[in-house]
Amino acid sequence: MAMVITSKEIADNLSDYTNTFGGNPVACSIGLAVLDVIQNEKLQSSAKSVGKCLKDGLKAIAPKHPMIGRGMIVGIEIVTDKESRKPAPEAADLLSHKLKENKIIIANEGQDKNVMLITPPLCFTCDNARHIVQAIDTALAEIEKGASEAGLNQSSFGENRMDIPLNILSMPSTSGYSSEESDFDSDHPKDIPPKFNITYS
């Protein structure tokens, strides 16, 4: 359902527009039923409380990572380090891929594609939020484990800082993903893998 609200002056200057399916009773009834569900099940206020569950869970597994969000819209910024905040899109790609393996789709957004954007539906529950948090925590642990060959050292701030060769982050070749999805390190020679850091507590 959609509507345009404007002044009479503007509306009078617009030409008439018709649509084959516009305003039909079935579509309007469905739209009203959806609005009733949103109101009766208090989904807007639920979004606020479930959003708090989601953010609290994410803060618990990564308290030193910056959090961006309001309600159930939350962004996790993946950067090389806290000081420079240089984007780490390769790490974000890997995290996204690992979550897809668990049937969780979280998009990489932002100019540098390094922000994991969580935008669940209004019917999302705290149990769903805990499931997402656990999946992210597991995926980050797998990334950390996979990086151990490249060297894992403790920084002076008590953070685990990993120098990860980019070729470790190459997506495995699977039939479920296109070459465009998996070949995010194609710009770098395999024999000279560049490095970046992930700061993870």
Automatic annotation (TrEMBL):
SUPFAM superfamilies: PLP-dependent transferases (SSF53383)
A GO molecular function held by the record: transaminase activity
A single GO cellular-component term on record: mitochondrion
Disordered as annotated region, ranges: 172-201
Superkingdom: Eukaryota
Record-linked InterPro entries: Aminotrans_3, PyrdxlP-dep_Trfase, PyrdxlP-dep_Trfase_small
Similarity comment text for this entry: Belongs to the class-III pyridoxal-phosphate-dependent aminotransferase family.
Protein name: Uncharacterized protein
